[in-house]
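Please go through the sequence line and token line underneath and see whether the fold suits the sequence. See right below:
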Amino acid sequence: MSNSKNSTIMNIIGRLTRDAEVRTLSNEKQVVNFSVAVNDSYRNKQGERVEQTAYFDCAYWISSSVARLLTKGTLVELSGRVSARAWTGKDGETRAGLNFHTSQIKLHGGGKRAETTQATQQPENNKVTVQGTEDDLPF
């Protein structure tokens, strides 16, 4: 599935590394920012198991009310677009990271506010789904 910018929509599953924060921009639009760690493993040529973690800085523009459910440790399944960014740190070293422009969030619980999440979940599938249409994102 692609949007008009020929971006590929992908899904990731991971845990929040910190509580979500809501920022209000100068045009009064609100964005929910959070970070997700995605773990993966594979066997190298020597047969040893190698663990890898990728970190995604996520932005969700559709509704800021979901922020209260996005707490550190919560397992989430996200749909959206990935983009890479690079910058020079204060130490002069080049750094790189991944941004995830989130269009859909499914909560699977597990954060410090799991009891709040469970109270709002749909009983038939034990998930909360937040959906909306993705606007043109300002980045």
